[in-house]
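G., the chain you wanted modeled:
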Amino acid sequence: MTLETLPLWLTLPISALLIISGILTLTGALGLLRLNDFFSRIHAPTLGNTLGVFCILLASILATLMLERTTVFHYLLITVLLFITSPVTAMLLMRAAITRKARTEEQKNKQSPD
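Predicted structure as tokens:
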């Protein structure tokens, strides 16, 4: 089976997943640009881009299963690693930002006389 002979019942969900992925990723990127502070900005790309990549991987899994009739272990591994690393990275960035903000406020309080 070639790409030109994919059945319509499979082409439609793959196309829908790719379109949804583009919309989610664009929403995450716009949230990164439009939101005011770091604490607000971190959520949009983390959630939007993670879901966008998940939709792309799901579309790839569907196409690979039909075209090559082979295992999709590497796609599943990418999905698992993405869902593990993305929230952990966001959490570590948030903690670093909170620590930096607390230190900055502490230094301002030491410098300003009461």
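The chain has a mean pLDDT of 86.

Shout if anything looks off.
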